[in-house]
Amino acid sequence: MQCELCGRNTENILAVSIEGVEMDVCADCAKHGKRIIKPRVQRTSVTRTEAKKQQAEETVEEIIPNYSDRLRAAIGKKDVKLEHLAKRLGLKESELRHYEQGKMKPSISDAKKLEKFFNITIVETIKLKDNKPALGSDNNGRSLTIGDMIRVRKK
Predict the structure, then answer these.
(1) Using DSSP, how many helices (H) and how many strands (E) does the chain show?
(2) Could you give the CA distance from residue 28 to residue 26 in angstroms, rounded to a whole number?
(3) Of the residues 11, 62, 101, 135, which has the maximum number of CB atoms within 10 A of its CB?
């Protein structure tokens, strides 16, 4: 590999921070900066069928349709002012008012903050399954040829 500072080709390359910039340098140039210890990434092998299953079983988080009713009831139960709640959760008071009135849907992160504070459910996780064959494949998952996709009209 090549040193990013001096350009020397060497086998012993170190990760170093020089004036706030992370660089891969040789041992001689490493003395000009602070050594960075990078965590080792553990690689796992996944078979094709496992990868397809993981891809097919994706999950999506959505805000439930009656989120404003649940939020309004929770705010009423706790008897907390919106300005105090906004400061505590790091949100704007106007945002909370819009969420409560149903004029605006909260982001997933804001909804999770509200869920945690009030101990209610606003976000639901939906599991998606893809049962459709991939484009360019038949129902059994085999690849199609051009001849399979062309319909021939007879005169």
Answers:
(1) 6, 5
(2) 6
(3) 62
Query: What does R_g of the chain's alpha carbons equal in angstroms?
Result: 28
Single pTM value for the model: 0.48
Answer whether 82's CB lies under 8 Å from 96's CB.
Answer: yes
65-103: pLDDT as tens digits: 999 999 999 989 988 888 998 999 899 999 999 999 999
Q: Which residues make beta-bridge pairs with 63?
A: 123
The answer to whether the beta carbons of residues 94 and 101 sit under 8 Å apart is no
CA dist., res. 33 & res. 18, Å (int): 4
- pLDDT value at residue 92: 92
124 is written with which tokens?
A: 């639901």
Looking at residue 93, its amino acid is E
CATH code of the domain occupying 63-119: 1.10.260
CA atoms within 13 A on the CB side of 51: 5
**pLDDT of the residue at 122:** 92
- Listed by start position, the domains of the chain span 1-38, 63-119
